[in-house]
Design a protein that fits this description.
The protein has about 300 residues and is mainly α. Helices cover about 75% and strands about 0% of the residues. The chain has 13 helices and no strands.
Length: about 300
């Protein structure tokens, strides 16, 4: 089972599902009924498990090249010795596709019970994930594709609890989410994998533009994330006021801006790994914040 969990990057996936939980509570302003909450949790977990597995299934050839040349130690969230289990022959392709198919089916079932319109988001996210993997040796613009895919889960979560959310609110949420994925997740991960990616001819921002520009992009995108995060309370019926904004600001500065500044100063790959780990905790911090305000509203 550990090998299949490694295929779906379960540690990272569990942290990621905090973001849909945060936005759902933010938009709704209270906890949904327990049966709905349980169904949402199962559905979002299944969706992330399936999409992460799809990444390795589609990109197995490139991963085999990376494994053949030796793997650098991962960052804390992704430091398992079982990274790329398909490429290391720890799992067969048939087993991998069955694993993906099972969890994708669970996600489809849950979505159908919650709001069938969300099926479109799931299918588009899966298609874009395939495109993201295929663009590894083509263009660094794949980073933007990754940001759209990572935003799909939170958008789906909003539709699960608010049948007709405002377009302006969704636009603000996307404008906040995408820079977080680009600056806090995608570029730092590529920075950590820079040697493996160089060997296979990948086109990533750290490889195409160098560490100085990559660091500047990280700082700019995460600065935008923290700035736009101040507007998130406007999406919620919660009457938390400035205290809610302050809590979100502190989380952004501590988990995103400070490690990003440290990376720009040092241009050290280890600092990029730390940034990835801290940015991975950002959704958990936000979920804890909104849960506290919901409970004491």
């Amino acid at each position: 089972m550990k090998r299949f969990l490694a295929l779906s990057r379960s540690t990272h996936g569990v942290l990621d599902i905090a973001m849909p939980g945060f936005v759902a509570l933010l938009w709704l302003g209270h906890f949904p009924p327990w049966p709905v909450l349980a169904l949402c949790l199962v559905t979002v977990l299944a969706g992330y498990t399936a999409i992460y597995a799809l990444n390795d299934l589609v990109g197995v050839r490139d991963d085999v090249e990376k494994v053949r040349g030796g793997l650098k130690a991962g960052y804390a969230v992704e430091a398992s010795a079982m990274r790329y289990p398909l490429a290391q022959n720890l799992i067969g392709m048939k087993g991998g596709w069955l694993w993906f198919g099972f969890w994708f089916a669970v996600a489809v079932t849950g979505i159908w019970l919650l709001n069938p319109k969300i099926l479109i988001i799931l299918v588009v996210a899966a298609a874009l994930e395939v495109a993201y993997v295929k663009l590894l040796k083509v263009t660094w613009w794949r980073t933007v594709v990754s940001a759209v895919v990572k935003s799909a889960g939170p958008v789906a979560a909003v539709y699960a609890v608010v049948p007709a959310p405002s377009a302006a609110g969704l636009a603000l949420m996307l404008a906040w989410l995408m820079p977080w994925e680009i600056g806090g997740q995608n570029i730092p991960a590529d920075w950590n994998d820079i040697e493996e990616d160089r060997r296979i001819g990948a086109r990533t921002i750290p490889l195409c533009f160098g560490p100085r520009i990559a660091g500047a992009v990280i700082l700019a995108t995460l600065g935008l994330t923290v700035l736009l995060g101040l507007g998130l309370p406007r999406l919620s019926p919660l009457s938390a006021g400035w205290a809610f904004q302050l809590a979100i600001l502190i989380a952004g500065v501590w988990l995103l801006l400070l490690p990003a500044i440290g990376l720009v100063r040092t241009l050290d790959g280890r600092q990029a790994a730390r940034l990835f780990d801290r940015a991975s905790l950002y959704p958990v911090a936000l979920l804890a914040i909104v849960t506290g305000f919901v409970l004491f509203e």
